[in-house]
Amino acid sequence: MLPMEQRTLDRTGRDVSVVGLGTWQLGGDWGEVREADAFDVLDAAVESGVTFFDTADVYGDGRSEQLIGRYLKGRPDADVFVATKMGRRADQVPENYVLDNFRSWNDRSRANLGVDTLDLVQLHCPPTSVYSSDAVYDALDTLVAEKRISAYAVSVETCAEALTAIARPGVASVQIILNPFRLKPLDEVLPAAAAAGVGIIARVPLASGLLSGKYTKDTVFAPEDHRTFNRHGEAFDQGETFSGVDYATGVAAAAEFAGLASEGATSAQTALRWIIQQPGVTSVIPGARSVAQSRANAAAAALAPLPQSTLDAVRELYDRRIRAEIHARW
User: Fold this and answer.
1) Is residue 155 classed as helix, strand or coil in its secondary structure?
2) How many other C-beta atoms are found inside a 10 Å radius of the C-beta of residue 328?
């Protein structure tokens, strides 16, 4: 296994790789993935130094968790920290975020992953009021006390939700959309998390593939791919697909971003390197559907830090292309 920089997820006391592996795609929500192919992707990540997998009970209705569980059972030498999420399989009303449901959801995830105690459980972008509920955090503390979970965290849609969660002493990390096309968390969320000792897990790091530079305005995605059916938030929050950026705008911006790539690095690796060096980021979790993608993502951890000129160019591109489009839309 290759070495990779590890950063401490402070409130858990565990170290995780700066590049993790997001496994939404293993559930089949980005197109069909065979089990053998999924195992190859996981194996390539581990062999490349990845020690952090992120999944959720809703990815493929549990298939992603099950694949990870079966894979790790066959790789006892792999020291992987697994974060899962709960809540999105139920109706999205605050009344569903109660201890009895947490226990039920937790039992299912533990069975899927084949463990007695889950490393980390994240509330999966629940209704906004859930982040402010004392009863919710009491219930999560109970799961820790019952040794069902070692720690808990949140995955959020907005910076305001992140700041609310960071103020809670038991929250280990905040998972938030962060990439060169989504800069808002840099101003408030990352500094607040660092001050509180809360980890930051950067999700949707390639803006659903836009930042790979591989797509054009004519690219067609599979019917079951959320990039086909959720471009305007038809199925779930729009920010989950292309980071909420209009597709045509994103393709044009991605073509410009590709020109900022470091020598010898791809556009995707440059985007990941940009995220890794943002102060306060613990790990970034790109997905991968092939062995080559898995290895290439992990290799971003070994790139030299981007120079200030590139960081400035990313900000200028965002202000001119992305923020301007969002402002015009609203």
Assistant:
1) strand
2) 9
Per-position b or e across 139-163, b if 16+ CB within 10 A of its CB: bbeebeeeebbbbbbbbbbbbebbb
The CA distance from 154 to 279, in Å, is 20
| Tokens 């613990």 sit on residue | 282
pTM for this prediction: 0.94
For residues 238 and 236, what is the distance between their CA atoms, to the nearest angstrom?
A: 6
Distances (CA, A) of 25 to 60, 170, 272, 299: 8, 29, 18, 20
Q: Give per-10-residue mean pLDDT for the chain (330 aa).
A: 92 96 85 89 97 97 96 95 98 98 98 98 98 98 98 97 98 97 95 98 94 88 82 77 84 94 95 97 96 97 96 96 73
Interior CA angle at 144 toward 141 and 146, to 5°? 110
Contact 43, 72 (CB under 8 A): no
What is the amino acid identity at position 264? G
User: Which residues have a Cβ under 8 Å from the Cβ of 228 and sit 6 or more positions away?
Assistant: 220, 221, 222
Residues 43 and 165: their CA atoms lie apart, in Å, by 33
Burial environment of residue 62 by CB neighbours within 10 A (0 to 12, 13 to 18, 19 or more): buried
Count the alpha carbons within 13 Å of 87 in the hemisphere toward its beta carbon. Answer: 26
Please give the single-letter amino acid code of residue 305. P
**Minimal CA–CA distance to 39: which of 77, 84, 74?**
74
Query: Are 229 and 302 a contacting pair, CB within 8 Å?
Result: no
Q: Do residues 159 and 251 touch, judged by C-beta distance below 8 A?
A: no
Give the C-alpha distances (Å, rounded to integers) separating 324 from 181, 242, 245, 310, 316.
12, 16, 11, 20, 11
Question: Could you tell me if 210 and 242 are in contact, meaning their C-beta atoms sit under 8 angstroms apart?
Answer: yes
CB 116 within 8 A of CB 87: no
Question: Which residue do the tokens 């930051």 mark?
Answer: 200
3-class DSSP assignment, residue 221: coil
Phi, psi dihedrals of residue 261, rounded to the nearest 5° = -60, 140
